[in-house]
Design goal:
This protein is of the alpha/beta class. It has 15 helices and 21 strands. The chain has a 7-stranded mixed sheet, sandwiched between helices. A 6-stranded mixed sheet has the order 16-17-21-18-19-20, with helices on both faces. About 3% of the residues have low confidence.
Amino acid sequence: MTNSIDFSGRPFHFIGIGGIGMSALAHVLTKRQLPVSGSDLRPSQITRKLETLGAHIFSKQEASNLEFFRSQGSNTGVFLNSQENVSVDPQNLPQVICSTAINPSNFEYKAALELGCPILHRSDVLAALIADYYSIAVAGTHGKTTTSSMIGYMLLQAGLDPTILVGGEVKAWEGNARLGESKYLVAEADESDGSLVKHAPEIGIITNIELDHPDHYETLDDVVNTFQTFAQGCNILVGSIDCETVRDRLKPTVSYSLFPDTKADYTVTNIDYRADGTTALVWEKGKALGVLKLKLLGHHNLSNALAAVAVGRALKLEFGEISKGIATFEGARRRFEFRGEAVGITFIDDYAHHPSEIRATLAAARLQARPGQRIVAIFQPHRYSRTLAFLEEFAESFSHADLVIITDIYSAGEPDLGQISGEKLANAIAEHHQQVIYKPNLSSISEELLSILRRGDLALFLGAGNLNQAIPEIITTLCEPVTATS
């Protein structure tokens, strides 16, 4: 695939435009008044929003979608719904954007190849946008979405009007992207498929490094190599030295840590983790900057906030501006997101799908839980490869839950080779936890929860798949009045 991107007016066509990363790019390009179209397997809130912005959306991924591009004697990318035999100007063919999820056997992809369209990976578009701005790119195995969203929000509150592209939806800009008018861009940079190496931001952040994608990487060293290449492309590298791999293998330009004895550039003391948030005194190279308050729970989010502080200071912001922005940041969707309450039961949705994330999220839930309140963890494993590779780590990651419910694995397009299953994971967890229940699908999960949840419970839905789709129905059913029977 070529990585030459044309922002001069040549149209963009996204195969799988409704994905969280693809749609963010499409949003920014559409707002930049470029011709944008795309397809997805089904309409969604994301594709409908893109339509309102001016993108042309196809509700199916079919070869015929590419027939809508015809030469009009100018490089404007006009769409025609016509079966006429109109010549195609090669310079007017759309730049076709795909993610790693698009299989080469996809009919629309094959049609784009046959037509001679430039085929690009979504990371090529992001890399070109990063090169087009004074960019801040957030990388790391965990915490990318929260950290990049927090930095974007902080800059927005400070009046710097950034362009933002993140892997989650944020209430402040009503989605996963916004187009600003300034030179600044904040982006989440993904390492899952190795495309992280394409990005060369002014400021790069690495929150931590673990093996999380065994479908792409064989060893932790393979992951480190990708991050090292990314680090070499950053003018300033901000990194958490609480992660041993970041500290020893990358040696960041600017360091941050939750522990003062590490001698990091940015650290904290007087930490107070509470049910309604966190406060800490922030230090910059041995000098106290002031008290930081954040609504988000847990040590991992305090670490994310320190990364934001380091970025803000690199941009010459006063600590008062930084702390004011961070104090009002409410987080991204599916990051310990409150989904509702019914008959005294609290429902929380979280994207955690790696053992480290599950441990951190459950520890944060324990901070919030009232004395005697049960934490019911409902987990949908994500990908066969990840579940198999980290089986023992998953088995030991639910210690802060009072009750664990496991469902079958969300494949994310991976084939089931018969090596691992949700039931096998449930059995492994049961070797370390007294109360574990296995239910094979969402309907049986819902039935089980309606039976066992009781007033005062905190029901925490964990996973990167579609488990959270069960939450609204459960809440609605619990709120329905009970009809007396004769």
